[in-house]
Write a structure and sequence with these properties.
Number of strands of chain B: 9
Number of strands of chain A: 7
Radius of gyration of chain B: 16 Å
Largest interface: A-B, 31 and 34 residues
Structural class of chain A: mainly beta
Oligomer: heterodimer
CATH superfamily of chain A: Immunoglobulins
Number of domains of chain A: 1
Mean pLDDT of chain B: 74
Radius of gyration of chain A: 16 Å
Helix content of chain A: under 10%
Number of helices of chain A: 0
Low-confidence stretches of chain A: none
CATH architecture of the largest domain in chain B: Sandwich
Structural class of chain B: alpha+beta
Chain lengths: ~110, ~180
Amino acid sequence: MPQIGRIKIRLPRTIRKGQVIAVKTLITHPMETGFRKDKATKRKVPAFYIDDVSVYYGGTLISHAKWTIAVSANPFMSFYVKADKEAPLKIVWKDIKGGVYEKTVQVKPR
Amino acid sequence: MKEMKDNDFSNSRREFLKRTGFVSAALLSVSAFSAFIPSQKGELGGFMGALGSGEAQAAPVPGGIKEKLKSIFGGRKVEMSHVVMKTPIIAENGAVVPVNISSDLPMEPGNYVKKIYIFVDDNRDPFIASMDLTPANGKAALSLRIKMRKTSQVRTILEDSNGKLYGSTKTVKVTIGGCGG
């Protein structure tokens, strides 16, 4: 099992001021549904998934996502942000067992 | 898609079957093969237009999703326009189904898309995910990979800041389910 909570965030290489940019995010997480059975032990694997994602840009919350078990393992998400200032873009994932994973990237419009 | 505009959530499966029943059996059998689905849908859309049904209805609503939509949106009408949803026609692996939603709705202060919802009708919990947006997003769009238990309709609903709802539905054929068990 790869390390849970490993995050990749990708922004466009060059950003113009005011441009609406695509932000692509990937986080390593098993996203267990609680229905799957472990083949070796024949027991159900308990649910373990991310249910809350927040996006902060320059300190203000701009997006907030609610997820359920039906989001795939190692969730990929992409969305848009209007790059109208040079500010950090922070994304925080929270899972149901209290795990908090976050990463900050700097948006530098030219 | 253009023909999807006429769809309505308040639609019954029976009516849908009645309408499609007119299309020859040959066409229906062809529909099993994904490659033909786009052309079949096109014809169907034209056919329904020819019928002149102002409130054309096409999406069957099983019990679970109906209740879910009602509990979230009440009886509000969903306009089937301004939303483009891209999904694969066939998903070989139901555990990873990419869904790409985009919209041309404005994202200005006071008039923006507040929330994007994703539903899969035949999942145990039809509600998959939702995302709150603000004008700072600049564009109402979202890509996500979701799990699907079996072949089902995927639907997305966008709620704007005035409470208006826009939506789109697509059927995705799943060969291997993705919810474990």
